[in-house]
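Lecture notes, unit on binding sites. The following record was shown on slide 14. It pairs a sequence with iron/sulfur cluster.
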Amino acid sequence: MVLTSSAKTAAIVLATLNAKYIHASLGLRCLLANMDKHGGAGLRSQTQLREFVIGQPAIRIVEELLALQPEVIGLGIYIWNVVETTQVVRLLKTLRPDITIVLGGPEVSHELEQQEICRLADHVITGWGDVSFPKLCRALLDGPQPLMKVIVGEQPALSDLALPYGDYTDEDLAQRLLYVEASRGCPFKCEFCLSSLDKTAWAFDLDRFMAEMDALYQRGARNFKFVDRTFNLKIDNSVRILQFFLDRLDESPDIFVHFEVVPDSLPDRLKELISQFPAGSLQFEVGIQSFNPEVQQRISRKQDNAKTADNLHWLVNQSQAHVHADLIFGLPGETLESFAQGFDRLYALSPHEIQFGVLKRLRGTPITRHTADFGMVYDPQTPYTILQNSTVDFAAMQRVKRFARYWEMVANSGRFSLGLEMLLKDGPAVPGSAFGHFLAFSDWLWQRTGKTHEFAFEKLVDLLFEHLTEVRLLDPQLVSAALLADYQASGARGRPTSLAALLAKQSQAKPVLVAANRVERQGRHLSQQQALRVEIQKAAAAA
Ligand code: B12
Ligand code: SF4
């Protein structure tokens, strides 16, 4: 099916600003797919979908939207686009106050009265939009005119919804990460998370869903990211979904599937299947958030830490799945020390990536109940990141945020496999934990450069060399051998000063140090297709 009709004009336009081009909007496609079913015949053919990317000038977005001569514009509002979309709406209302602006999405589903974008718009639909948006459009086009500005989105049985997957275009299939959902909602109540408001999870009929997956696969789709909050909730369903991809891997070894899982439930049936997936085909995002039982209880997160550790250990050692484990810093009552312990515990389990997030106060989330007792101070601007609390003052919070940034750059970039091992290892000259060593490096790097961004790779190699040899007092020969191996495995072609002599020597002889077997991330020397694949894997892990 073709995503957008070839018509040059449309009475209804559905638009959003995605975080990046690679992320296709599933939410808007859900609305588009249900236009006829819930708005009445003929509505779908009057609707066009337009996706933009944050960073595009608002004026150009407005120009493109107005060129379609719409009567109604529906905009998907999320934490990553609300600031820029507010400017889009402001311009639209200034130029064409007669066009009806309808907002929806998680960012405008709570605390509406505090948001300028909601004041500027004509209607806001909170929660699910699949049914209420088509119904509202029908009323706007044909009357009777709706009286309410704010409409609580209807939440029908999932069997009443048309599925959106036919609305992924061939371009989406070839170039973007395809978001799919086998279920909606979450039964857990972690207070920092918007999904905690759902209270339960609903599953789409699996036969119907699998038929759609098959149709996507037949059309050439190979990259699937499941947005299910907890993939391993209904094990029968998880087994069937995994089996579906496993059955196609022989024929299509380039399949890549990403799931979010709860860490303390991995029954044998699931393990058996997981262990059959070859390297590069399966990725799990495992939410740990905190290993501190007191904090877990305070934020209503139920997690069996021992089982979590066992399952992570199994995934890393007995399967070839790429494992990303999430931690959140800044939760109420968490101290730098207790967080460090959790970090070290997680690091010892060797997930392929530790995603180090800093707490954000998402609109509508129950974490606000701790604001007074724990002195939680959040940035009033998106993404509402914590600035300080009663156990971590502002200076310490800044210090940890730099740690998180440098961790992305050095550890999660996958470019310093051996260098990182050296940096985090306890040593006789300078003892300490992995967290302690990286914090010391982070403090040093900040003092030394005053920067958190825009480090050329070569410069980073030199800085790491300097730190490892002059602060950690490690043997310069060993350090340069490790960094050279990392550098060469990355495929980069520059000449870091610290490695210049070794590189010169190597340009005369064949390289002796090959780190390929130890570097898990694909090299930087990639064909266009491989590069896209790496980008897709990174993007899938970005949530
Ligand atoms: C994919 C995704 C991303 C992608 C971006 C996707 C994109 N299009 O660009 C990436 C990975 C980049 C991302 C990043 C982040 N994300 Co995110 N992400 C998601 C995720 C997993 C899936 C979204 C989705 O497709 N859902 C399925 C569809 C069907 O639901 P939906 O989008 O909500 O759409 C429904 C309604 O909202 C509504 N609706 C949507 N659009 C419209 C438009 C109109 C006109 C109407 C009427 C209704 C309507 O109707 C739809 C159907 O019912 C959700 C969690 C989830 N499972 O939903 C989190 C989620 C959206 N992300 C969230 C957060 C907090 C983040 C981060 C801040 C996380 C972080 N790093 O700390 C970052 C921010 C990125 C940035 N650059 O600043 C929060 C959202 C909070 C908010 N207020 O927007 C969510 C809900 C997670 C959560 N449970 O807390 N994310
Ligand atoms: S963090 Fe995960 S498990 Fe907890 S409420 Fe959110 S989606 Fe559910």
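Take-home: The mean pLDDT is 93.
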